[in-house]
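Sharing a chain and its predicted structure for anyone who wants a worked example. Both blocks are below, sequence first, tokens second.
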Amino acid sequence: MQTLDQKFRFDSIDQLRGLVMVLMALDHVRDFYSPFAYDPLALDQTSPELFFTRWITHFCAPVFIFLTGMSAYLFENKGNSKATVRNFLLTRGLWLVFIEFAVVNLSWKFSFAPWFFGQVIWAIGVSMLVLSALIYLPRVMIFAFGAILIAGHNLLDGIQASQFGDMAWLWGMLHQPMWVPFNDSGSGIYFAYPLIPWIGVIAVGYASANWFLSDPKQFASRCIKAGLAVTIAFVVIRYINVYGDPAAWSTQERGGLFTFLSFLENEKYPPSLSYLLMTLGPALVLLGWFQNSKTLPGKPLVLFGRVPFFFYVLHVPLIHASSLLYLNMTTGGFRPGWFQMGAQGFPDGYEPSLLRCYIAWAIITVVMYFACRWFAQVKRDHDHWVLKYL
């Protein structure tokens, strides 16, 4: 196994990871401060500015999970054995699944209601568990496995969970988002992030990292070339309009701009082939650009990217609590989890506002910067093993 030059830092990976964390916060601020009565991506109701506010956050989950695979490769190439990498992926994966249901769900609900949802932290955790077994295979086999899951899983779109009878819940975990009740009392779990394509993304991230990272001098150019190729593949596949996404794009009565939005509107749950090409392609280009540039926003983004777990676990309850405080002070009548009910949960007098959303996002980002800077210093000053999981 080729060992990387430990003197060379790929700060661009942390920078890109930090960027997607900030974008993720925008989506969650919108959820808590300015939810709309309709899907922001619904072309018959949305506006371009609302559409792009939601669409830009599509990059978060694919990029983060791809970089998780790449980071696992970097961890292995610090001289760690396969067994050490396996054990880290296993324990980290189990930890993330626990945090999703025990902490993150509570942060979204602010209640102990017995219903749960499996979102991105759940998907990352299980993907790491699967990767812990895959790392023993040759890299070409891991890459092929991941690529097949990414490119081929839309062939499974016609299979419905109901066809599996009592095992329908398993298909909900793997490919079809669904509500799985525990009993007749309303408790249960909603699998929002089916696993098959996400496992493919982490596998490709891990297996391709050797090519991207083996020569630091070629890293940026390889990222840009690969990113352009993936982006072109998205444009071609999406334009052909035959395969790659459950919903074909179409000419819109509202004009050419909305036709373009239709082209960009690809399925996230689960992420279609077109969705993953659309997001990972430009992200790789940006990764290469970050590697070659010394931009002013670089240092704050690197900071966020080095403590992503801390950022995620803290930002949801911070946004939720601050939104309740602000909206109750200005409008009144808001209760925990009100936005999850859709329009019927909106109190009298509530009006969504993108301006309010962006102002709140800017403030939350500044607060998170100081919190993350403090925690990063704690990690630098202490070498306790627990900090590796935070």
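Comments welcome. The chain has one domain: 11-389.
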